[in-house]
Amino acid sequence: MTGSTQTRHPEAPKGRPTPKRSVAQSQRRSVANTTMSRKEASKRQREERRAALERQRQALASGDERYLPARDKGPVRRFARDFVDSRFHIAEWFLPMAVVILVLSMVQVAQLQNIALLLWLVVIVMIVLDSVVTGFRLKKTLAERFPDENRRGAVAYALMRTLQMRRLRLPKPQVKRGERP
C-alpha cells in the first residue's frame, strides 16, 4: 500500500501472479461442474422444470402475475381478460349449442334438419357480430387506458378467450360478470 489510499479487500488474494485467462476459465468450469454428473444434472433440470410448471399451473388458477406464462403477463393482457370476463358473450356457449345443433341435424325429420341449419347460421352470425363489437370496444378502451403500452395481440387474445366457456378459462376469471374492470 505504498502509493494508494484505498484499502485492499480482505479476501483479495495477494502474493501470487494473476492467472492467465484460460487457466482461470478452466478452474471455474471444473469447480462448477465437478459436483454433478450428466445424469444428476438432467435429473435436477427435470425437477426444476417440474417445479416451474407447477408454479405456473397454480398461477393460472390464482391469477398470480409473477408466474404466468409470457402470453398472459402484463397489465394490458390482465385488462383484456377482465374486460372479457366481466361480460356475457355468445361465443362461450358455442360448444354446447353445437352439440344440440348436431343432434338436431341427425334426427331423420326434415323440418328439424332445416331448423338445425338455420340455427347454425344464426349462431355463427351472432358470434361474429358479438366478436366485432367486443373487438372495437376493447381496442378503443385499451387505447384510452394504455396509450404508451404495447397493445399488440391483446384484442385477438381477448376474442380467443370469449370462445372458451367461462369455467374452463385460464387464467381463472378474477372478476364477476357485471363488474367493471
Distance between the termini: 64 Å
> What's the overall geometry?
elongated
Structural class: mainly alpha
Helix segment count? 6
Question: If you had to describe this structure to a student in words, what would you say it looks like?
Answer:
With 181 residues, the chain is mainly α. It has helices spanning 21-33, 38-62, 75-85, 94-106, 110-145, 154-162. Helix 3 (75-85) runs parallel beside helix 6 (154-162), helix 4 packs antiparallel against helix 5 (110-145) and helix 5 packs antiparallel against helix 6. The protein is elongated and about 100 Å long. The protein has 6 helices and no strands. It starts with 20 loop residues before the first helix and ends in a 19-residue tail after the last helix. It comes from Streptomyces griseorubens. The chain crosses the membrane at residues 90-109, 115-136. Residues 23-36 have a biased composition (Polar residues).
